[in-house]
UniProtKB/TrEMBL annotation:
This is Uncharacterized protein. PANTHER family: UPF0261 DOMAIN PROTEIN (AFU_ORTHOLOGUE AFUA_1G10120) (PTHR31862). It comes from the Bacteria. Gene3D superfamilies: Uncharacterised protein family UPF0261, NC domain (3.40.50.12030), Uncharacterised protein family UPF0261, NN domain (3.40.50.12020). It holds the Pfam family UPF0261. Residues 2-157, 165-378 form the UPF0261 domain. NCBIfam families: PRK02399.1-2 (NF002674). The lineage of its organism: Bacteria, Pseudomonadati, Pseudomonadota, Alphaproteobacteria, Hyphomicrobiales.
Amino acid sequence: MVATLDTKGRETAYLARVVEQWGRETLTIDVGTSNRRGRSEPHGSDARVAAPAELLREIAASAREEVKELLRSGAIDAIVGVAGGKGSAVFGEVVSDLPYGFPKLLVSSARPALLAELALHNDIILYPTLVDLFGINAFTERVLDNAGRAIAAMRHVPAQDRQKRKTVAITAFGVTTPAANRCVARLAEAGIDAIVFPANGAGGRKMEQLVSAGEFDAVLDLTTTELADELVGGTASAGPDRLKAASHRMIPQLIAPGAVDMVNFGLPSSVPAEFKGRQFYSHTPFTTLMRTTVSENERIGRLTAERLSQAKAPALVLWPAKGVSDYDRDGGIFRNPEADRAWFNAVRRHLPRSIIARELDCHINDPEFAEAAASWIVEQLIPGGSSGADV
């Protein structure tokens, strides 16, 4: 249990009793800024004089190391937080190094925007209280009873020594789903598991984190649209670490320009004024897409090549000449061959000679594109195991 005991002590004690009633033992780490009665006292008597943000970072770093040590020793197999706004931010940092799938439950009265931000970075199970946490009452009892029973039923089971079944990360968007589906099926035929991440910012960020953690044997980066949002200023950027982890881990990677024809925004009213007059399409009532230009695609292609140039393991770029998304095909709302080719030309100009960029005369969602991409991945992981297209 991780909690701010100076403000959530009663709620934490109540939650501990519920968990223990269901047969689990608990230990508590105090991440409050006063009355530090936790398992460690990392800040000494001068803790109160630090700037609030600095103090919170110190508390989070100390608690994160403590949790990591508890995990290494096998002392914990689930974690639950009880917090308001500051404590919720600290909890997000504390659990940031825990494995994907390790049970992480946060009972929080923080504002929804903060909880949404936490969900971008980790697989935390969020339990918004909707009422403030001011002691035990008829409302908070219901919340804490449910949370206690839930976390008591969750238990992390460490993965056994990994079976030699290869696992590949794939990126997908709604407009590249047909290609992703075919890639998953082709890899399955070869006995390879495929884990698909939505290229919506949070998905790409999480994929990079898991690749860095050694969870994957290769990356089929079919949908690199998040780079468009990073460069142009959309809402689906995965941040500056996108397209880096596979190179650092030295695993095979295939890069395609899936959905780089678009930048994501929310409601039409949310589109910045600087883009007035651009080409837009309402993907849903809540999602507005903006077509990328020739110059933007040239910049995206250059960034792709610069990040991919760090690769030491096999890498391949595949470019579909007939379109990069469902909206970018003959007759499609975003069809713009000149802008598409600007991406490919920039990639070829800036890639090192050791990395090949190849053009396929098809659309990204045509079966032959998925066959070529997946078959290359199969050949990297199971030499001689590909019987598909020659790329």
